[in-house]
């Protein structure tokens, strides 16, 4: 297929953003949606996008899966949609510019089943459970993690923020 044909069938970013928003909002009855930012600390000279995406998928998301589903046989299906994440290094918003020392980080939206929410989220301190937070920080490459529930009606803003300046 040529680039012209590919372009003809691709959706605009606004349309894709709308579809992602509708998808995540359609899960709200049974799921709580969280916006997650994981900042990584470079511990060696291997600082590629693939490395940090692997650290996120195989490290951070694995910790979430284990917390949600203690039975290893069911861990793979513990997260209904773990693939909405984007790597950033030099992207910036209109309010700030990205400098040379911009951290390696990943933004994501992660739906968690409401029936299993208590395994990862503490309503008392409005944060991840202490155990999960400790497990994630035990990964040698995670500098910090910020997790916040996405309020109803704000999904599109989060999708736009996470996908800024990126092809989706």
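^ Assign residues to that structure.
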């Amino acid at each position: 297929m040529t680039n012209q044909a590919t372009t003809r069938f691709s959706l605009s970013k606004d349309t894709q953003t709308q579809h992602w928003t509708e998808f995540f909002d359609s899960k709200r009855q049974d799921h709580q949606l969280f916006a997650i930012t994981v900042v990584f600390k470079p511990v060696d000279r291997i600082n590629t996008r693939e490395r940090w995406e692997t650290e996120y998928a195989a490290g951070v998301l694995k910790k979430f899966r284990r917390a949600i589903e203690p039975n290893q046989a069911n861990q793979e299906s513990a997260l209904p949609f773990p693939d909405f994440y984007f790597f950033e290094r030099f992207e910036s918003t209109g309010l700030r510019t990205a400098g040379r020392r911009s951290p390696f980080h990943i933004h994501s939206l992660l739906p968690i089943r409401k029936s299993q929410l208590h395994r990862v989220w503490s309503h008392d301190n409005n944060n991840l459970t202490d155990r999960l937070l400790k497990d994630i920080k035990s990964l040698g490459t995670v500098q910090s993690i910020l997790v916040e529930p996405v309020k109803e009606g704000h999904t599109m803003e989060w999708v736009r923020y996470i996908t800024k300046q990126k092809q989706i």
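The first strand starts at residue 31 and ends at 40.
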